Amino acid sequence: MTATRVRELDALVIGAGFSGLYLNWRLRDTLGLDVQLIEAGDDVGGTWYWNRYPGARCDSESYMYCFAFDRDLMQDWEWSGKYPEQPEILRYLNHVADRFDLRRNIQFETRVTAAHFDETVNRWTVTTDGGDVYRCRYLITGIGCLSNGQIPEFPGRDRFQGEAYHTGSWPHEGVDFAGKRVAVVGTGSSGVQSIPVIAKQAEHLTVLQRTPQYMIPARHQTVDKAVLDEIKKDYDAIFEKARHSLGGFPYDIVDRSAMAFSDDERDAIFEEAWRAGGFKFVFSSFSDLRTNLAASEMAAEFIRNKIRETVNDPEVAEMLVPKDHPFGSKRTLIDTDYFETYNRSNVRLVDLNEAPLVEMTETGIRTEAELIEVDVIVYATGFDAMTGSFNRIDIRGRGGERLKDRWAAGPRTYLGLAVSGFPNMFMITGPGSPSVLTNMPIAIEQHCELVAETIDHLRKQELQLIEAERVAEDDWVEHVNKLAEPTMFMRANSWYLGANIPGKPRVFMPYCGGMGTYRAHCEKVVANGYEGFVLS
Fold first, then answer.
1. What whole-number distance in Å separates Cα of residue 372 and Cα of residue 206?
2. Residues 134-143: what's their mean pLDDT?
3. Beta bridge partners of 133
4. Is the dihedral of CA 248, 249, 255, 261 positive or negative?
């Protein structure tokens, strides 16, 4: 029997999305390390490789949803408009991979199944589903915050005889909805983006909604090539501002309370922000929408009235009006013609609160009120966010402790970057970091740069290990929770808290103190000799 060959590496990176590509360049091309990337897909792209559902689009503006590590790249790439769609983002990431020759050390169509820390040699042993075995000094995860799609265990789900798809693992050849009766289950981000597109293609569309959503119009037409060309002239300053901002955007954050204005004055400010569209509605209107329930309710009522103005049928409009959670307690969605779609004659809305879903049948979906017969079911039912992708890998640290067991009561990290008892393992935008509450490329670059600088420091100091201290980890978890406590985030059951996964602990997972504050904290940690870490 032939012994399995073990390949020795400096670093192994899991994932070839934004995080993996940038890490590859930083570690391989600037530090000269022997690096291997492992990617489940057959090419680069990460989230944008898998999420190809109709209407898939970024909700960060294009000129900020990109890398900033190479000035020529920033100047050369031309975005088509304000919010890039999935095919354009994937073209961009392929362009980056080509430009920096990043594929030559990526192993595609391979999943990491296990990663165990070997204390006898201070190395990680990593195995894949193809039987490959690697031994590396540094293990780095770039597996994404929203990359483990989940479909609830609806009774009879496997009985359905038609086509069924999850938005997070869409067929690369696309889906033809022409002449078909389609049901979309779920109205989160992917549902909101796909529903208007599917409605234009399908013979009939039924939307099954459990939670109405607050949405802000995207206003794609407000950014054209002339605007983007002007931005490029000041790109350095724009990105520097974004790096130290609240949400990773170069927006001027207003410091004013919604409570300090009359109704007419307040509505005028909301209206101006509404016309601008996107996240500017949050950042450029009032500063207390996320922390003051009364202010949040004022924004909520403004949006409810916009829904009522847009949707022709008053009964349908009231079904679409969010009433069970405050504005800002869940992810603020950016839409394109979502509410207008319900004015189409071939679209019907079903409220699952009024008639709960009972089961899937061979021919469709049965609620307590009716059997809805369809040809296609689209599950826009979200992801096991933040921790789901980690739980799919058998990660074991000191003494064979499983990361899944350590996180049984909720994820515990230091800076969202490291876990005590798991030396030389770094997580890019892990739980406890700003991640999903920011413009992701800004958060990703900050983490990747911090990891690369840390590894370089260890090499120069001839140190082998870096490990988070348990007390520092406990203090950071307490800090993350304390920041979240007074916000609207704690007033709703959302995937930020893991509430969309049955049995998952209710723990607020991202850091809501802002990208700039978080960056300053990390800089302080490094300046103080990697405070909270043990280096040996």
1. 8
2. 97
3. 6, 127
4. negative
Asked whether 443 and 417 are in contact (CB, 8 A), the reply is no
Ordered structural domains, the chain, with CATH: 6-148+385-535 (3.50.50.60), 151-213+330-382 (3.50.50.60), 242-328 (no CATH)
Give 169's pLDDT tier (boundaries 50, 70, 90): confident
Altogether, the residues listed in the chain come to a count of: 536
Phi-psi region of 40 (alpha: psi -120 to 50; beta: other; left: phi over 0): alpha
Tell me what the mean pLDDT of segment 223-251 comes to.
Answer: 93
Residue 506 has pLDDT above 80, yes or no: no
Helices 515-527 and 440-460: angle between axes, nearest 10 degrees: 0
- DSSP 3-state of 206: strand
Question: Cα angle vertex 77, ends 76, 83, to 5°?
Answer: 150
Question: What are the C-alpha distances in Å from 528 to residues 339, 455, 523, 525?
Answer: 51, 16, 9, 5
Asked if residue 489 lies in contact with residue 512, where contact means CB atoms within 8 angstroms, the answer is yes
The helix or strand, by DSSP H or E, that contains position 358, with its residue range, turns out to be strand 357-360
d(CA 399, CA 388): 23
What is the CB-side half-sphere exposure of residue 284 using CA atoms within 13 A? Answer: 18
Q: Residue 294: how many CA atoms within 13 Å on its side-chain side?
A: 7
CA distances from 307 to 210, 337, 339, 343, 361 (A): 17, 11, 7, 12, 33
Asked if 29 contacts 5 with a C-beta cutoff of 8 angstroms, the reply is: no
Per-residue 3-state assignment (H helix, E strand, C coil) for 420-431: CCCCCEEECCCC
Q: Which residues of 318-330 are buried (b: 16+ CB within 10 A; e: fewer)?
A: ebbbbeebbbbbb
Q: 260 by DSSP, 3-state: which?
A: helix
- CB-based contacts of 265: which residues, under 8 Å, 6+ apart? none
Torsion of CA 452, 456, 462, 463, to 10 degrees: -20
Please name the amino acid found at residue 490.
Answer: M
Residue with the two structure tokens 């959503």: 213
Tell me the C-alpha distance between 167 and 150, whole Å. Answer: 10
pTM of the model: 0.94
